[in-house]
C-alpha cells in the first residue's frame, strides 16, 4: 500500500531529525508553505490588515508621544503597536530566518491565532482598537474609519468563515457518533500509513468522506489538522481522535 503524501507531516519530520535552531525554521516553514499554497489570497488579506494596524499604531504612538503628556493614551498606543506587530510577523509572506523563528514562537504560545476563527476574533478586536485609538485621541478621523472598519470587517469575515468550517467538521463528528462505532477500531482502520505517528490529513479526509460523505479541501485540512493534533504532533493520535469524537465541538 502506497503511503499518502502529507506536506505538513514531511516538513515536521525534517524538523525532528535535524535538531538545533534549524528545527524552528523548518517547522514553521512547512506550516506556512502548505497553508499559503492553499489560501494565498486570505494570507495577503490578513497581512494587509496587520499592516493597517501597525500603520495606525505607529502614527498614534508618535503623535501622542510628541504632542501630549498622556501616559495612559501612550500605553494604549504601544499595546496596539505590539499586537499589530505580532500579527504582522505571523502573516508576513516571507521566509527570512528571523521572521520564521518569530512565527514559531507565536505559533507555539498563541496557537489560537493559527485557527481561522481565532484569527478572525483577534482582528475584530484590533479593528475596534484601531478605530478607538485614532478617533478618541483626535489623531486621524478618516484613518480611524477606513483602517478601523477594514480590519474589523476582515475579522468578521474570518470569524464567519471559521464558524462555517467548524460546523462542517462537527457534522463529521456527529455522524461518527450516530454510528456508535468503536473509535479505536475506526481509528485503526484509517490510520494505516503510520499508526504511531497518527492519522494524517489524507487519511482523515478519507474517513470523513466515507463515514459522513463530507470532503475537505486542502486548505481546510490544514486548519482541521492544526485543531485536532495536540502536543505538537503531526498526526491525529488515537487519544486525539477519541477526545474529539466524545468531546465538544472544536472551532477551526
TrEMBL record:
Bilayer-spanning residue ranges: 44-66, 78-96, 116-135, 141-164
Entry keyword Zinc: no
Membrane topology value: Multi-pass membrane protein
Record keyword Glycoprotein present: no
Family matches, as Pfam families: COPI_assoc
Entry's localization field: Membrane
GO cellular component entries: membrane
Predominant location category: membrane
Keywords of this entry: Membrane, Transmembrane, Transmembrane helix
Record-given protein name: COPI associated protein
Organism, as annotated: Perkinsus chesapeaki
Taxon lineage: Eukaryota, Sar, Alveolata, Perkinsozoa, Perkinsea
